[in-house]
Write a structure and sequence with these properties.
This protein has 256 residues and is mainly alpha-helical. The chain has one domain (2-254). It has seven helices and two strands. It has a two-stranded antiparallel ribbon with strand order 1-2. Strand 1 (111-112) and strand 2 form a beta hairpin. Helix 1 (2-25) packs parallel to helix 3 (65-104). The longest helix has 44 residues, at 211-254. The chain is elongated. It is a multi-pass membrane protein. One of its GO terms (biological process) is protein targeting.
């Protein structure tokens, strides 16, 4: 019994590295406020759950240390692609918040994001937190693990990774990030741009009014009113994008 466990330890190490890589780079699990010991423990638990689904008898591991280390780096790369691909949707939420904040004149109002430790605008942080709640509501943390399990069928441990298809899919995800961000922020940005145009016309027709003292607080007030009015539609759009992300991730894993 002990000899079998020792023989399976290298294979379990490979599974653990891919699992940990997915979790460490994916949304929810990669937050800076989660202790490292918790992340490692969760990776071990998930790896133990996945390991029985892998047919150990069909796996031929390298017989030298250098090849084994290269295989570990390959597993980390696969996990990074899956985890980071899922995180791109939240990048779209942050970019959308930055676009709205910039149009409102809140670029200087940067605060520390407690989730990742970056400097973001308050609106970006609101959208990001809502995105995390929606991600949990649609069981995103579950389908992410399902994508990890699927990756062992599409890219077995000892087989070659189809980098061409994977890179093309990642480029599509990056393109979708910016398109999604613009779709979320566009309604508010357009209306605020119209406010600037109207204010400029008023300033030209009534030169005695210092339009700069009026336009900045006016844009902030109108921006928050628009954000409150359109928030139900924004959350629906975010939920739709997360569902699209689920299909994209499984398509990414299936094309590896």
């Amino acid at each position: 019994m002990l000899l079998n466990i020792i023989n399976l330890l290298p294979l379990f190490t490979i599974v653990l590295f891919r699992t940990a890589s997915v979790l460490f780079f994916s949304p929810i699990y990669n937050q800076t406020n989660i202790p490292m010991i918790v992340k490692i423990g969760l990776s071990l638990v998930v790896a133990f759950a996945i390991f029985p689904t892998i047919n150990a008898s069909q796996q031929t591991l390298p017989d030298n240390l250098i090849s084994f280390i290269i295989l570990i780096f390959r597993e980390v790369a696969i996990g990074f692609i899956i985890g980071y691909g899922a995180t791109l949707a939240f990048g779209a939420f942050v970019v959308a918040g930055e676009l709205i904040s910039g149009e409102m004149g809140l670029h200087m109002a940067q605060i520390v994001d407690p989730l990742f430790g970056d400097q973001v605008s308050p609106i970006s942080q609101i959208l990001q937190i809502v995105g995390f709640l929606l991600f949990l509501a649609i069981n995103g943390h579950h389908w992410l693990i399902n994508a990890l399990v699927l990756s062992y069928k599409t890219v077995p441990i000892t087989e070659f990774l189809g980098s061409g298809v994977t890179i093309g899919k990642m480029v599509q995800l990056f393109e979708g990030l910016f398109v999604s961000a613009i779709k979320i922020a566009a309604p508010i940005m357009i209306i605020l741009a119209l406010v600037v145009v109207i204010s400029g016309l008023i300033g030209r027709s009534m030169p005695e009014i210092n339009i700069f003292l009026v336009i900045f607080p006016l844009k902030i007030i109108i921006g928050f009113v628009l954000l409150a009015l359109t928030f139900p539609f924004i959350t629906r759009a975010m939920e739709y994008l997360l569902n699209i992300l689920r299909k994209d991730i499984f398509s990414l894993v299936g094309g590896m």
